[in-house]
Please model this.
Amino acid sequence: MTFLMSRGGDTIKESRHALLVWAEAAAHLWLSARRAITKAHNDVVDCFIQEGETVCERPARYVISVMAQDHVGIIADVTAALYDLGGNLEALSQTIVHGWFTMILCAAFPAGVDKNAVKAAFESLSRCQVLVNEAFDAAPAPAVAGDPYVVTVIGEDRPGIVRRLTRCFAEKGINIEDVWNEVKENRFVVILSVVVPPDIDPKDLRYDLEQAADELDVSLRLQHQDVFTATNSLAMHTKR
Amino acid sequence: MIPTEDILKTIEMIQVENLDVRAVTLGINLLSCADPDSGRMLRRVRSRIHAAAGSLVACCDEVSGKYGIPIVNKRLAVSAASALLEAHGADACLPLARVLDESAAAVGVDIIGGYSALVQKGFSDGDRRLIESIPDVLSGTSRVCSSVNVASTKAGVNMDAVALMGRQIKATAERTAEKDGFGAAKLVVFANIPEDNPFMAGAFLGPGEPGTVINIGVSGPGVIKRALEKLIAGQGDVDLERIAEEIKRTSFRVTRVGELMGREVAERLGVAFGVVDLSLAPTPRIGDSVGEILQTMGIAAIGAPGSTAAVAMLNDAVKKGGLFASSSVGGLSGAFIPVCEDAALAKAVEDGSLSLEKLEAMTSVCSVGLDMIVVPGDTDAETLAALIADEMAIGVINNKTTAVRVIPVPGKQVGDRAVFGGLFGEAGIAEVRNPGCSSRFVAFGGRIPAPLRSLNN
Model:
C-alpha cells in the first residue's frame, strides 16, 4: 500500500491555527483511508491518497509460466527478479522434462507493475521463455466436480496413445488434472489424474477406456485415487 | 498427484503380485429366528438371510469396480446354528442346513459358515444334535460349512467332544467317499475359536458381535512372496531384519486395501464394520503360497530345520505391519498352512520333506492348525481324535487359536492323491505315524483341565 500526504501550501507552517487545520484534515483523510482499507480488506484492495483524493487500485497478481533449458540457478534468478519488482510469491510448481525446465507460479506485485515489466525482468535474468497472465481474483472453482480417479496406461510405445485416451475423456466431460508420461526402453507409461463427474458410472467409463486400450494394445487401469492414498500414506482417503 | 513411483508400486502389486481382497464375509446373527415351530423357524432364517445379504454380492462388485481391485470371495457367517436347534428334535437339523444352503445360493454366495457349536465345557441338547447331524449335513448340502469349538484356554479340552469329533470326521469323509471325503474339508475343530473370523471353513458369527457385520480377509501370500523375491534379487546382502521389514511394509499396504474396501462395503450395506483379518490364506495357484515364501526365505525343503523359525518370523512381521495399517484387526490374523490349498506345502508332503509332526510344530507359532491334510482312509477315529487333542493342547496352553481340518480319504493310502479341485486343491496322502496307539488315552473321556497361566515353561 502506498499512503501519500500532501497539502502543498507554505502557509501551513505559518501559524498554529493552520497547523491544527492541517492536522485535522490529515486525521480525516487517515480515517477515510483506514475505512477504505478495512472495507476492502478481503479483496486486497490497495488505497492511497494523491493530490487530495483517495484512490483505490488493485495490486497486480499474475500467473507466470517460465520455460528454459535446465541449468543451475533458474529459480534463484526468477525469484530475485520477482523480489526486485516488489513481488510476493504465492504458489509455484515446477518440473523438468527431457532437460527442459518448466515452472508455473503465481505472484502479487505492487500496483503499477505491468505484465511487460514482469516478462522483461524474468527473461533478462535467466534466459527463459516467459508467459504472463493476469490471475483470477479468487481461486476458481474446479473445472469439474466429482471423484478423483487415477488412470494408468502401460504398453509398447507408439504415436497416438495419449491422443486417443484424452479424446475419450474430453468427450465425456472428464477433466484431466495432472498427467505424467515416461517412455523407457520403448515401454510407455502414462498416469493421468482425472475427476469423474457423479453422473458417470465408473464401470461404464472403465469399459470404454478398456475398449480404447484394446485397440491401442496397451494395458489400462482406472482406479479411485483412495487406493493409492491408502497404500502409500498414513491417510486412508485423498484430501480434496 | 500422488508420487508416480508410489502409483506404479501399487499397480505392480495388483497386476503382477495379484493383490486382492481375499474375503468379504457378512456375519448375520440368526438368534431372532429361533422358534419352537420348525417351519416358522426355517422361514425366518430364510427371510433374515435374504434381507441382510441380498445386495452383498452386487455391493462388493461395485466397490471392487471403484477401486479396480478384485474381491475374490463373498461369504456368509451366521451365528452358531446349534442355538436354533435347542427346541427341536434331530429331524430339524438337515432342513435347517438346507435352508442355509439354499439361502446362500439365492444371494449368490458360494459358502456359508456357522453350522457350529461351542462345547469346550459341555454339550447342550442343541449342540449334541448339531454335532450328530454333521455327516448328514455336509454330505447333503454343498455350501454349508461346520465348525465345533472343543477347547479353550479358560475351559480346557473337552475330550468327550474330541472323541466325538474324531468319529464325525471319519463318518463325514465316508459319507462323501466318491469325492475323496470332501465333506470333511468343510468341517473344522477348534480351540479358542475367534468370533469374527472371515475365512472358511471355520467362519461363524460369535457371541458379542453386532447383529450384522462385515469382516475382511486380506490378500494372499503371493504379494509378500513377490516383494521378498524383489528385495533379495535387488540387494544381495539383506539380513533377516531387512526381510522382516519388507514383510511389514507389504502387509501394511495389503491391509490398507482390505480396510478401505471393507469399510466401504459395510457403509454401503448399512452394517457395522468388524475387523480386518491379516491372515495369509494361500490358494492352490502357483505363486500364491505360504510354502513358497518359506522357500524364498531360504528353506529349500519345506519341513527342514528352520521351517518353524521362518514361519514364526513371517507370522509376526505380517501382524506388525497390519496392526499399524488398520484400527480394527481381528479374526485369526496369521499365516495359514493348509496343505491341499497350498501347492508348495502339498508338494513338500508328497516329497516326504514335510511331516504331520513338523506341521504340528509350525502351528504352534502360526495360524491356524493342522489344516486341509489328507490322511489314509483307514485311520481310526480314536487316532483322529488324538490328533485333534494334540492340536487343541497347543492352542490351550499357548492361549491361541488352533484348529484341525483333516480328511481321512476313504480307500486311499500313502502314495495316493486326493483331488478336491477349485480353492480346496489337492495333495498326496500324508503318513499318520503310530496309528491305533492312542485309543486308551482318548477313551478316558472327561476334560483336560484349564491350564496354569504362570510358570510359563
Remarks:
- Chain B touches chain A at residues 1-4, 6-11, 13-15, 62, 65-69, 253, 256-257, 259-260 (CB under 8 Å).
